[in-house]
Amino acid sequence: MAINYQERIIALWTVFLLGTLFHTQLGLMPLFHGLSVLESQRATNINDISGIMWLMLGFFVLPILAIIVTAFTDFKRYRIIHFGLTIFYSIMNLLHIILDLFVQPVLWYQIALMVLLFFVGLLLNITAFKWMRLYNIPNKSQNNLEHSPF
After folding, report:
1. How far apart are CA 137 and CA 59, in angstroms?
2. pLDDT in tens, 86-118
3. What one-character DSSP code corresponds to residue 124?
């Protein structure tokens, strides 16, 4: 059975995005029970947090674009860029875990979810690395056919 790295990568990005959405939703759950939520900064209107909103949009859009592009291309240059993107996300996730350990009170259910997402990210790193190292099989097969004695 041939390994389809693109399918694995798409599945892992999807799990990562669902986990990230659940992380956000977990942070908002206290509101549904009449409790307050932790604030990173006090805002009086949406303009006060527009920078954060744009950063969050970018953080969600890049994996969405990675899923789409991964489904439709197998170019070596993209595989290299994609691997770099997975490393960036793993670093960001690790930093997020470390920083949240200093937030009081420590929400251990959030830390547990972020650790799980970090390991999903590491699996994504490994899979993306293997995909990046894979030769362009269609081109290699074509070269073999062209140089075949038949």
Report:
1. 32
2. 999 999 999 999 999 998 899 999 999 999 999
3. H
